[in-house]
Amino acid sequence: MEQVGRYPEQLNVKSEPLMETITAVNKQEQYHLLDRVIVEVQLFQADRDYQLSGKIGNLSDNFSNFRHLTGDLQTAAHFEAEKRNNLNQINSIYQGYLQEIDKAYQALPPYQPDQAHSEDYFRVRRLELVTIIDLMNEIVSKAKKEQPELFVDDRSKNERVGLLDYNLLRPIAKGGHEHSPILADVLKRQGVSSLDDLLQIHFQPIFKQEGIGNRLTKIKESFVELAKLIVDKHPQIQGVTGTSWLLDNEAICRLIGFKIVGQCQDENWNQLIDQSGQINQERLTQLIKTGHLPMKNMIGYVGVIDFLKKFLPPEYRGQIKLIKLDPEWAEAYNDFEKDFQIEKKKLFALLVDGQINSEIDLWQQLDQFITVKEIFNQAGVLNNFVELLAKQNYKIDEIENNYPQEAKAIAEKINNYIAIKKQRKEISYQVEIN
Question: Can you give the pTM of this predicted structure?
């Protein structure tokens, strides 16, 4: 892994601010205006990356690194596909939006590569890029007007304790996702399953925190409440993790007991916002002059026992009952899930490529994909699946449109069977927290 930690450059800031002061009537409006400013800065960065890399492909090819640029566009594409009653069109609609943006981009004034790291050119180019910002807003505005709830920040769905937002990372829960390779490896080294649950924390933006007094004290108090929450409601938690630019700071890591286990490839743009809800001019200057944000987005972790030892209040200490997955069950389930996903992907690829053209072909392939066949059979849909494919001449990508009810019924039965397989087998254990 490359060396982690904050970038070393310290640059002088011009007295003239790069960004105007943001004026809003409340914090919600201010957050909305800040979001637009971050989009402007990210577009400037995408523009610069594209131009300095030799203008390979299109400007939008660089958008994958800037979630502020892509998130609303993808949501708008999903909204439009739902209106057309064809979710298969989500990606084609999204790509159409990107093509509109790339076309508008070609009409902008020529880029000045020799000025790419100039503060003055940032001001000029930012104004030139307003055309693109306006086009993006126009694309998403209709969807936002008709269904604003689609654009609610996912962070608003998190639970909150003190200054912290949190959510559970549950790989085998309904709708769950497996842990990142970094966290899965940490859990294995901790001696528990990579399918065990974690608690993920999120630091609220400083400017949104009102009337909190001493922030360090409040942060500690928030972690105390989090420790009590684990004991009272979530004894299955095996560790606490978080990803933030704030963790690119040894003092904060010591305060919360985190060890840095990796660096997130996605940069955290919230570091450009200061505690008053304005753009931090110094950090923006560093971005313009160096091409990268000053603070790295670090992944921190602490095992649950160490976390409880550090933050559990006196009245909670003593024998603590915790829960973890049965390792043998977890390993067996992990193998089952991986085999199913691999086999399903291969089977569907054969169908999409037209390599299965008859019932005989299909049964021969199902005999090779043992886990898929077992799941379909146990779910009671194996024969239904074969018959439905025969109706559609084995063109699986057309089934959802032509036989939506039958396809939905098969999918529901498969998901119900998998949900039964996911029923956790757990082991209780006790630890002494003095």
Answer: 0.83
